[in-house]
Amino acid sequence: MLQRSELPIGVRAVESFFERRDWCIWGFQQQAWDAYAAGRSGLVHVPTGAGKTSAAYMGALAELIDEVGFVGQDTQTSGRGERRGEAEKQAPSTRGARRADQGVGLRILYLTPLRAVARDIELALRAPIDELAIPARVESRTGDTSASMRARQRARLPEVLVTTPESLSLMLTRDTARTLLAGVRCVIVDEWHELLASKRGTQTELALSRLRAFAPHMRTWALSATLANMEEAARAAAGLGAEPAIITADIDRPVEITTLTQIEGRHLPWAGFMGIIMLPAVLEALDPDRSTLIFVNTRAQAERWFQGIAMSRPEWAPIMGLHHGSIDREERERIEAGLNDGSVRLVVATSSLDLGVDFSPVERVFQIGSPKGIARLMQRAGRSGHRPGQTARVTCVPTHAMELIEIAAVRRALASGLIEPRTPFAEPVDVLAQHLVTCGMGGGFEADEMYAEVRTAWSYRNLGRETFDWTLDMVTHGGTTLGAYPEYHKLERDDSGRYAGAGGRIAQMHRLNVGTITGSAVLPIRYRNGRRLGHIEEHFVAQLRRGERFVFAGKIVEFDTIHDMTALVRPARGKTTYTPHWAGTKLPISESLAEGVREAIRIARRGELPGVEGEATRELMEAQARLSRVPDPTELLIELCETTEGRHLFAFPFDGRLVNAGLAALTALRLGRRRPATFSIAANDYGFELLGAADYPFEEHLDAALFSPEGLAADAIESVNLSQLAKRQFRDVARIAGLVFQSYPGARKTSRQVGASSELIYDVFEQFDPGNLFLGQAKREVLERQFERTRLGRSLARLHAAEITVVRTRRPTPLAYPLIVERSGGSVSVQTLRQRLEAMQREWEGAGV
Amino acid sequence: MSERAGECAGGAPGGVLFGGVAIDAAGERVVLLPERAAWWPGVRTLLVADLHLGKADAMRAHGAAVPTATNHESLTRLARLVERHAAARVMVLGDLLHAPLGITEDLVESVAVWRAGVDVELVLVPGNHDRKVERVAERWGMRVTAGVVREGVFEFVHDDAARAHAEQASFVWSGHVHPVARVRAPGGMLRPACFVVGGRGCVLPAFSLFTGGAPVCAHGGERLYACADDVVIELPPEPAKRSRTRATNSR
Lengths: 849, 251
Prior knowledge:
The complex is a heterodimer of chains A (849) and B (251).
Chain A: H1 9-21, H2 27-37, E1 42-45, H3 52-68, E2 108-111, H4 118-131, E3 138-141, H5 147-155, E4 160-163, H6 165-172, H7 177-181, E5 186-189, H8 192-196, H9 199-214, E6 219-224, H10 230-238, E7 245-248, E8 255-259, H11 279-285, E9 292-295, H12 299-312, E10 320-323, H13 329-341, E11 346-349, E12 364-368, H14 374-381, E13 392-397, H15 401-415, H16 429-441, E14 445-446, H17 447-454, H18 465-477, E15 491-493, E16 498-501, H19 504-514, E17 522-527, E18 532-537, H20 538-542, E19 549-552, E20 555-563, E21 566-571, H21 591-605, H22 611-627, E22 635-643, E23 646-651, H23 657-674, E24 678-683, E25 688-692, H24 712-722, H25 725-736, H26 751-768, H27 773-786, H28 789-801, E26 803-808, H29 817-822, E27 827-829, H30 833-846
Parallel strand pairs in A: 1-6, 1-7, 2-4, 2-5, 3-4, 5-6, 8-13, 9-11, 9-12, 10-11, 12-13, 17-21, 22-26
Antiparallel strand pairs in A: 14-16, 15-16, 17-18, 19-20, 20-21, 22-23, 23-25, 24-25, 24-27
Helix pairs in contact in A: 1-3, 2-3, 6-9, 9-16, 15-21, 15-22, 16-18, 16-19, 23-24, 23-28, 24-27, 25-26, 25-27
Chain B: E1 2-3, E2 21-25, E3 28-33, E4 37-40, E5 45-48, H1 55-61, H2 69-85, E6 89-92, H3 105-116, E7 121-124, H4 134-137, E8 142-144, E9 149-151, E10 154-156, E11 171-174, E12 179-180, E13 183-185, E14 188-190, E15 194-197, E16 201-203, E17 214-215, E18 223-228, E19 231-235
Parallel strand pairs in B: 5-6, 6-7, 7-8, 10-11, 11-16, 12-17
Antiparallel strand pairs in B: 1-2, 2-3, 3-4, 4-5, 9-10, 13-14, 15-16, 15-18, 18-19
């Protein structure tokens, strides 16, 4: 054991900082610092609030202190760094003095997916620097950074920089990128479990691979919570060629779930989503003196619940807050600060509060509706009573009867330690295209070198040279296929074979586009007098008429107009519960949880489901058994039913909404082959529905061949084509790849116009350039992401082996009913436009029109 | 009054109507074709509107990578129509071009080549997108009219709504709208391009496939004729096919 005076000054300084704050150093933190000092990258995987940031940061900070020294409060602990600047650095009178020309340049880069918390992180990182008077600067750099700060940073970066993946990519578009970034020693990536499975995560991987080319000795430390595939997550952060350390701590907190089932005299409905029927029970359980978080699953739900509580308990208004992704940032910050100082004690929130700087622990956590995932529930429960080791408590509030089964399944999963993995995208071509242009602009590259560099990013480790070349060709001269695009050159190749960015307008548009991976079609929304409310989805606003009232950010407003790409509203009186809808926010149940649900049903079937959930679902199970049957996991239950809408087929694989949607499209396609038809589709986490014409003979075709895994790949692709989903997915791909632009400089385009363009481009590609890789990527993404193709394959195999039980029901059963209510899944048609119109024609003639 | 495909002289499905539907336009017989054109046999004229040639080229100039094959598709389809009907004249009712930026040398050349192989009189009634069309009029052997064209009981214009009404007796052929019908069918809304035919005149669908469309309803005595792949289907009047009205603030 080294004597204290023998330790490097950096370590001594850090330890003294901890001592002064009376913080103890956890084992995992020491492990992380040791690994860092040994030159390793790593992943720190411990629950929220346990000190992850310190584990990653302090090691790097100690190294920085070794380099630049520090003054400190106590001359005993001050020390001269290896690299001495001017003598005045040592004088107490200049403690904390930092002048731009004395800095050593960027050493520690902190990446966060949330620009809203960048400032908070900046403060947290600055604390030891201020206290120890280390001559280093800490700044942040996001879309919100002022122009003057940006200008300063263009000349020289601070020693510690907090930024977002998008801003990092933007920095890489500057030709000074290599100079500014070559000194980076440590990159810390926060909330990696969230970033990892998104395109922003892929963008981060690529950006880091570029950074490593500039700064080969850089180490990457990712901070993550709650995921199953730690090894993969660590490699994705550290890149190939590193052996990342995985640092965990044995401080998992037990999670205790309470379920609310009381509704005066009424039963939980068979279908539902908002869950407002549970409001009285929740109100009863709320205590305004105890800080409480109420988590819901969608923004619309958040607005409804907030309004419901506020209307029932107006006296709570001063301590309440509504927090979701479309609320204005200032308001969200106010709420977070309020949670910290106790002035805000009741917050209704979506996943917007899942990430972010730790705020003070709350006393109670409610989860409205199924959490749809085990990790998510653990994370949210973890917001209660923040000290590591203390039991995390959450009250689950089901919104319809089947959710009780889901909650029971979560309980069992927690008990067995089961958690979901987060899987990164596999080599998305659109992100690569954007990255190549970024690198071209930021100093240029040679093809072979870049290919090797890109392959050091985990998600691109198997990237074929052909795909790389296609992408490079695409951004250089529009590709090599028949439909060449001579004007589409974002990169230029010089005679020596070096690629660099085409300048001018193309560069400008690329920079505008770089941040669009997260972009969705939103408009800012504010009052006429200028006060900002947040952001609202464009497609919702587009269908409003002047004077229409709706609820937003907990207030009732009246739509006025759209002006200069901003939605303007006035405060309105009167009541309304019309809430905006936000597209694409419904998460499916995870595969792990779905399996748990099948198990739970099997147990419930026998009447042996324990606890509150068992009690409350007894009636549901009995009704289902009476009208149809409660499915066993080894059988596939199919219900056929006729209503005025037509003939319904319901099937219940319990595979999660996305896979069920895939099964629906597949089944529709295969049925349509046997007998041409058009079906409307609905899917939820339990099963799917096909709605066909009144005379469609489903029963003639329900055999094992319908679910055969043979031909799945081709059929899946065809059903995707037919179901319009690829077109929607292509919209994102087109935008990221720079085929269309969210906004031209000087020409403000609404994204509806952009959407129309990408749809048309899709059609044109389909018809004239079917080999186009961007088109292929959109389809692949639908298959893999939306239909979760591998999961679909597993599911199909299970169904193929299962016994098919067909029941004709006179009316929709408890299992079927939620699907009827859900119907928004689009349709699959094996018929041509002509066939469909002619079918309508026959109907009109029959009706004597 | 209209004849359906199949119920015509010749017996073969489609027969001389080629899947289209013949209408009585102020006493003249005109055939609405599924290729989004109208055929006026009396003077052997094909009527089309809204080709928007060069739209892809204009988009490429802005950096969006779209194939210009759309131009080619439009021109090929038009050439086939000319040949099939042995047309003597093609009248374009506006928006032959999309934007000045899209008038690339490539486009001008391809149209010139196409033009050389198509033996018809080409007339353009200019529309709002046809700025700078005079640059190409000569190379394309095209006559650009000064404005509205009157021939007998017909009037030809690009945008009917944008002008003061003329003599009552006229039957007005126009474009500009890019009309698309909305038909509620099992499985979702169908949106076929369509002709809008009424006592006043007829609005042609956009000839180009690479344009958006505006949903239309049939008002008064109007009828919609939908282009459904290779046939034209007359749609019944409201309310049988009326699309669902948008939900209002009744929530």
